[in-house]
Amino acid sequence: MKNSALSHSNNKKSWEKKHFLFYFLIVCILLLSSCKTEMDTVSQGTPTLPLAGTQNLVDTQTIIQQPTTKVTEEPLHFTFPTSAAPPVSLWRPPLYEVPWALNPFDHFYFTRPIATDDVNWPLADYRYGGVFFGMDIIHTGIDLPNPKGTPVIAAAGGKVIWAGNGLYQNDPKSSDDPYGLAVVIRHDFGYEGHNLSTVYAHMDRVDVSVGQKVNVGDQLGIVGTTGATTGPHLHFEVRIETNSFYSTRNPELWLVPPQGWGVLAGRVMKRDRTLLYGQEVTVVSAETGKQWTVFTYGGQPANSDDYYQENLVLSDLPSGKYQIKIKYDEELYRYEVTINPGAITYFQFAGSDSFSSELPNPVSP
């Protein structure tokens, strides 16, 4: 009986062992099948989504469904240029072509004597007709502040009639002339039958000689501090008919403006129609709120344009609506104007008679 029970027990263990082996075999088959599926997936490659912002963006589901080809080439390397300092005039549009005149009495004949990647607009606090630091010295040009060595270029083509020291005293041997090293160009064209000249002063070096023909953009020298200066800048003048300190006109009416920008000119007077000298005028942009402060001419030897008869000019204004403010006899007067691109906007002020946009009568120079 004992042997029979033992035999039955052995048979049961044998069956359980076979049963265990059977299930173990099934589990192994399932595991192998699962491993094969994972290996097949790996061999196909895992898709990588493109970087955000790239142009070849595709649907994520499409990427997963399409196997990719194994890449054997070297990965792409991108090299970006070294950043450079932006040009000073990055925010300013390019100039109109010269000559430029939308109105019959305008004469934008000259390009800037400093290139467009440097400061080539007038010093705001000392424009044409300004009074030098409270002294009785009237400014007969505009100042373009730039570092020493900045190239000075011809504003138009013509012939060099002065190159060196002594321009004010008309003496080339003078070493203490207020203009310092200067160049004068007599241009190939005129205005209303009159000769035109331009002056370039306070240079550290002159690169042209008397009698030399130059074209627009030719280098005349470099910015400096010679003569009566408080810092490096180019003094630029426009002279009509004679090459004289007393025959200048406001260069801001002759230099071509940036594209889309315009010029404001005004005649500011008392009620009796006599000119107001050194009168402060504020100009405010209606779009941006930016404001400019400019003063009327301080007197002779500053000269008005033969047509506009102005005693105030503010150039390089982006086109748009502006408000002019003038405080006269303790009362503040306001006037709305629109600056038109490439043109001169004109106004008159006559004290308590206030403002008008009436143009002056044309006269012959």
Structure description:
With 365 residues, the chain is α+β, with helices and mostly antiparallel strands. Helix content is 13%, strand content 30%. The protein has helices at residues 2-44, 60-65; strands at residues 142-145, 151-153, 158-164, 181-191, 194-206, 213-214, 219-223, 233-240, 248-249, 261-269, 280-285, 291-295, 312-318, 320-328, 331-339, 344-350, 355-356. The strands form three sheets. Strands 1, 2, 3, 4, 5, 6, 7, 8 and 9 form a nine-stranded antiparallel β-sheet that branches. Strands 13-10-16-17 form a four-stranded mixed β-sheet, with no helix packed on it. Strands 12-11-14-15 form a four-stranded antiparallel β-sheet, with no helix packed on it.
* CATH top level label of the largest domain: Mainly Beta
Number of distinct helices: 2
CATH topology grouping of the largest domain: Glucose Permease (Domain IIA)
The end-to-end span amounts to 148 Å
Count up the domains.
2
Which segments are poorly predicted (pLDDT under 50) over 5 or more consecutive residues? 1-13, 30-90
At the fourth CATH level, what is the homologous superfamily of the largest domain?
Glucose Permease (Domain IIA)
Beta strand count: 17
Strand content: 25-35%
Q: How would you describe the shape?
A: globular
Mean pLDDT: 80
CATH architecture of the largest domain: Distorted Sandwich
Helical fraction: 10-25%
Task: Please give the largest β-sheet.
Answer: 9 strands, antiparallel
Q: What is Rg? A: 40 Å
Helix-strand makeup class: alpha+beta
H and E string: HHEEEEEEEEEEEEEEEEE
